Amino acid sequence: MTRTDQTAGDQPRRQALLEALRASDAPLGVTDLAERLGIHPNTARFHLDALVAQGLVDRRLEEPTGRGRPRTVHTPHPGMDRGGQRQYQLLAKILLGQLSTSPDAGAAAEAAGRNWGGYLIDPIPPSRQPGVAEATQRLTAMMTDLGFAPEADRKQAGSIRLRHCPFLELAEEYSATLCPLHLGLMRGALTEIRAPIEATSLEPFAEPDACMVHLSPTRNTGEDTRWGRRRDRSS
Question: What is residue 175's three-state secondary structure?
Fold first, then answer.
């Protein structure tokens, strides 16, 4: 950890500096702030550097009123304070709870996932269609980026184990909507890249430590039930 990293002990001092800047009618220099807070100028400078790096304080040179070097002054960055806690899990719970009241919550969630899946997967040029291996790799890469820790199932060809759920606590309560949403993400992604495979189902908690995604060839592809092999078109 470097000196510019914020620790629990630094937070009160930096908060005091911010409050002093917000209470001032004019920009303040390092010496001004040090005197107001009763701290050494070097201490004030150290915490101001961190606040500037965090985007909470703006620093500029003040035009001199006479001879001498311009003074460096500080003002609070305009806008809402970006420090403090976030409550994204609460927001997700509120939205999932609302979605669960739909007449067909699973279908609505799956459709929402489809709409987003196409935005999340790495695109493929329209001039070509991916094979099974590439489509599976791109799907796996997307799920990795989203935090699902996917891995190919060695016992079941065409299946992917999801070893981590980034929404585990919510999935335990809202699996009827959240899991269809995840399935929709994968379906939308595969549709977007014109994959020769589709996600047919998602088994929540199929194993104690994983959910299972099942893939199969699309109807119009030359794949047979032996995963990844082509039908003999000459027969």
Answer: helix
- 112: CB partners within 8 A, 6+ apart: 99, 181, 184
Task: List, in order of start, the domains of the chain with CATH numbers.
Answer: 10-76 (1.10.10.10), 88-217 (3.30.1380.20)
The pTM of the full predicted model, rounded to 2 decimals, is: 0.66
Q: Is the pLDDT of residue 156 over 60?
A: yes
Do the beta carbons of residue 10 and residue 47 sit within 8 Å?
yes
Q: Any idea what DSSP says for residue 191?
A: H
Task: Report whether 74 contacts 21 (CB < 8 A).
Answer: yes
Q: Which pair of tokens denotes residue 169?
A: 């606590």
CB–CB of 30/72 below 8 Å? yes
Element (H, E) at 76: strand 71-76
Q: Which secondary structure element, helix H or strand E, spans residue 151, and what is its range? A: strand 150-152
Average pLDDT over residues 67-84: 81
150 three-state secondary structure: strand
CA distance 89 to 35: 42
Instruction: List the structure tokens of 112.
Output: 């929402």
Say what the pLDDT of residue 83 is.
64
pLDDT of amino acid 4: 40
pLDDT of residue 132: 93
